[in-house]
Amino acid sequence: MINQNLQSRGITVLRVVVGIIFFMHGWQKLTAFHLAGVTGMLGGMGVPLPNIAAPVLITAELIGGALLIIGLFTRWAALLNAFDMLVAILLVHLKNGFFNPKGVELPLALLAATICLALAGPGAAAVDAIMKRRPA
Question: Is the pTM of this model over 0.70?
Fold first, then answer.
């Protein structure tokens, strides 16, 4: 049987790496594509209300990714990013088949990872864990 400490460390690796991926995608949208570019991209893909969806998407990926990296509000950040991936799969990637660069392959893996984190929690070395141990 796998040691619980090893499981917790494995979840930590998953949380940090997935957090980096989301954070970097949000950072790219914010700094390289900018709000207007993301709004136009979403509108071109048929995403409803792109003027609202673009800042929500950027915020979810950037802030949600940062929260995952440090392990703060991990379950909520994971659920937020899971919803992001579900919407991306349904509205954008599903019609493009399975394989990258436009298929569901990466968004599906990220959806599974975020669901895992939402269910399992932050793992070791997380602000959530430190806050939980601290007496009120």
Answer: yes
